[in-house]
Design brief:
single chain, about 220 residues, alpha/beta, Metallo-beta-lactamase, Chain A, seven-stranded mixed β-sheet, 6 helices, binds nickel (II) ion, binds manganese (II) ion
Length: about 220
Amino acid sequence: MKFTYYGHSCFAIETGGKKILFDPFINGNELARDIDADSIDADFILVSHGHGDHVGDLALIAKRTGAKVIAGYEVIDWAKKQGVTNAHPLNFGSAMFEFGKLHFLPAWHSSTMPDGSAGGAPGGFLLHGDEKKFYYSGDTCLMMDMQLIPRYAKLDFAILPIGGNFTMDADDAVIAAEFIQCDKIIGVHFDTFGYIKVNHEDVIAKFKAAGKELILPKIGETIDL
Ligand code: NI
Ligand code: MN
């Protein structure tokens, strides 16, 4: 399963010949200036919540590619107002898609769309793919609900925010990794803004001390998982 990092919390997973893009935000990210949002393909776009650093390039990429946008009901309402037509609204629970079963699960955060409209409740995704199972928490603090994840799936890897300030920091992400019983974590939501800069060696060491691997992919890098 291929994982490509586009900076901040924007990444793509390729599975079963389908490309699933998460939380598209490239043009507003100075660190992702070498990424061309107009060249990113997608069959599906999954959006965790309505903040600009997760939906900045949603309409742009969704309209060009025709990808199906999957997100909470209010995020989909907003996307439709931006001209997105291929969309699937969710609320917390699960649904079946071509790429497998998808749980949309709560996150402790906020969610306001860029135009100030309500973004509904923020969430995260648990994808039960044919190849691999993984969890992307979205923007959230550490929360007890994460302990439900092992009841649903034995994860192959997880994508967690580590930057602190707006989300979990690395210390809490280590506990989250314990809650979800996963040893391979990809860190996101760090370095983009001044508030969330991290020392890479320090955060990797925190995970190592807990017997876990933290991967901090380079922007534009594709890794095999
Ligand atoms: Ni957010
Ligand atoms: Mn965010």
